[in-house]
Amino acid sequence: MNLVDKIFFDPISKGLKFFSRSGKLTDLTKGVVDGSSAAAGHVGESIRSAANPGGVAIGAADTFINLTSIVLSPGDWDISGIVVVNSNTAATTIMDLAISINSGNTLTDHVQGDNQVRTWVQDAVSGFGTNFATLTIPNFRKNLTSTTTIYLKTAGKDSNNRYHSYRISARRIR
């Protein structure tokens, strides 16, 4: 018998199957329907890192710093990030958020509107003493061919700005 690699739809499990030349049958769509988390390496796997340190200084002006990171295995991932910041200054200021494979103060892979966002934070004087802003990067898609650390980074125009909470999360999509 001449065996060939074949991918087919299984109407019983309603999922994709792979039949290899060696005769091994593999389920390609191992999702879950019981409320549990998807297993590592399977579609739906979720990884996240979050914290709520409250009022920690951002650091030097115009310098990206790492807030947190996650390690992702090879595959296609949807990665998102969020940070809540506030201005403690008398001037309106700019804040940035980025998701990057590069640690620290680098702009190498930043693309505004894709994996980097920017906003203005109203000055504290004309506001209510401190003004908050939320920056989000929704579902930035990244294809990885090796295990990679992904960083959530922020920068501000004024070193008196503070970040209050943040999260980076990723879901395997393929």
Task: Describe this protein's structure.
The protein is mainly β and 174 residues long. It has two domains: 1-30, no CATH class; 47-172, Jelly Rolls (Sandwich). The chain is 0% helix and 52% strand. It has no helices and twelve strands. The strands form three sheets. Strands 4, 5, 7, 10 and 12 form a five-stranded antiparallel β-sheet that branches. A hairpin with a 5-residue loop joins strand 2 and strand 3 (25-27). The radius of gyration is 21 Å and the shape is elongated. The model has no long low-confidence stretch (mean pLDDT 79).
Strand content: over 45%
**Percent helix range:** under 10%
* Unreliable parts: none
Element pattern in H and E: EEEEEEEEEEEE
Distance between the termini: 32 Å
What about the largest sheet? 5 strands, antiparallel
Key phrases:
174 residues, 4-stranded antiparallel beta sheet, elongated, Jelly Rolls, 52% strand, 5-stranded antiparallel beta sheet, mainly beta
